[in-house]
Amino acid sequence: MNETTGGIEDDEGSGIVKKFMFVNRKAPYGTIYALEGLEVVLISAAFDQDVSMAFLDDGVYQLVKGQHTKALAVKNFSPTYRALEGYDIEKLYVERESLEMRGLNADDLLVPVEVLSSAAMGDLMKTQDVVIGF
Amino acid sequence: MALEVNGKTYETDEEGYLLNLSEWDEDIAKVLAEGEKVDMTENHWEVVNFLREYYNDYQIAPAVRVLTKAIGKKLGAEKGNSKYLYELFPYGPAKQACKIAGLPKPTGCI
Known about the structure:
The complex is a heterodimer of chains A (134) and B (110).
Chain A: H1 8-13, E1 19-24, H2 33-44, E2 50-55, E3 91-95, H3 96-101, E4 114-116, H4 118-126, E5 130-133
Parallel strand pairs in A: 1-2, 1-5, 2-3, 3-4
Chain B: E1 2-5, E2 8-11, H1 26-35, H2 42-58, H3 64-75, H4 82-88, H5 93-100
Helix pairs in contact in B: 1-5
């Protein structure tokens, strides 16, 4: 603690920051997982942690452009992924194999992402303190 | 709960947030503001309209930190700070302004 910071910022700065990765594996509609997972991520942003999101398997469909949910009579929450940047959640990782298997590439997605191979995704998961799956 | 405006009844949740945001209009906003004891000025409307636009774009009501930052970006630093926003909406800009704007309670509001 010193004169210039007065101690308050010091206390806040000394909070432990953990690496949290939220792993999304399910299609956006049909179950509540994708929406609930997104809400947890938005809430987690309030705690100043190192938060990232990973999209694998059918979870890649969560980010696909041009979602129309009228026939399903549920809310299209896909625009909310574009709000993540404003919440300082900018680390979005998508597994290449999952995209390719579904005939998709990064241009089909709503937001800028980093596309990683399955092996690289596994390595990244290993570096996390907490991995939470939805 | 319900809200009565110009002889019409609108449904709200138990905290008074409008349930169907497509029903919102300025008269409803004025009644919601009265309930919050907020005297609507041009500056209040600016924030309320900003929130409606944000919701329209992103389908969520922003957390207060995110709202403050986004307002600063669009309307300038003199408005994008907690002091300014809390002066307009003393019981929490996100909570009160969202209610008046007819939006759900902000996600990540703790």
